[in-house]
Amino acid sequence: MVTNEKVPVLSLQKLGVNYGKLILYAVLQELKYGPSSPLPLYDALKGEIAGKRFSRKHFYERLTEMERLGLIEFIGKEEQKKIYAITERGRQEHQAAYDKYYPSFSSLLNLASVIRYDINRRGNKPEIEPISASDRRFFGRIANVFNLIAYNTLFMLREIYHTKRSGAPGHLIIAKDIQKEMEKKYGWKPSHGHFYDVMYRLETEQQWIYSTWDDEKKRSRRYLSITERGLHMIEIKAQDVEHEMGEIILFLRSVLRVFDRQI
Q1: Of 1, 31, 20, 67, residue with least CA distance to 204
Q2: How far apart, in Å, do the first and last CA atoms of the chain sit?
């Protein structure tokens, strides 16, 4: 049975950001480099933020609102084109948004990069960075946690399977060992409840793993093993996670450019 686990739709709402506000921050970011007329501002943004397009009409409406709020000001005309500049209030608004969102989104971007590197080993190895409790929850909203847990579980159990087949001394693992390994590799692990729910599904619904008690009487530790079906699924799950992390990286970079065009 192949899972039809739904991939989370990447959206600003899941990150707690209003799309209209993001356009506002993007305009302020551009005006920090100097006054401009509306059209070059629109062209600089290419009519798109975080994969979502917006019309010129919507863009001009945002400019009018920003002027009304005192975030930008009309300073004159050049060749019959209105020229706008950022105000001090606009600078403060952009800095406040930067302080609120940039560290968090950068942390999520790094985590996605760490996970993708763990799979494809391409490029420079990202450093594992501490991640706050709130960012852990944010990541769970935009990532397919089922696939992450499934990949790590199958990968670890495949290593044990091959070690056992080679006749080399090996060891058995329990679910908690997988949690610990994920935290060690990523600096992040799924919530306790979500993790064990997925582990239950991997065994009972997908039948990619199976478990046995260390002692049928005491039942203190439940050891995990991989099934033939699980062996066939590991590369699929690796590809799924690599693709999903790539999508998250592109999404977060597009959001971060609102605050730093060098991203």
Answers
A1: 1
A2: 41
Q: Per residue in 60-89, pLDDT tens?
A: 999 999 999 999 999 999 999 999 999 999
- Checking if the pLDDT of 1 tops 70, the result is no
Question: From the CB of residue 115, how many other CB atoms can be counted at a distance below 10 Å?
Answer: 25
What pLDDT does 4 receive?
46
Q: Residue 262: which pLDDT band, with cuts at 50, 70 and 90?
A: confident
> How far apart (Å, rounded) are the C-alpha atoms in residues 147 and 170?
26
| Residue 76: both structure tokens together | 């004159």
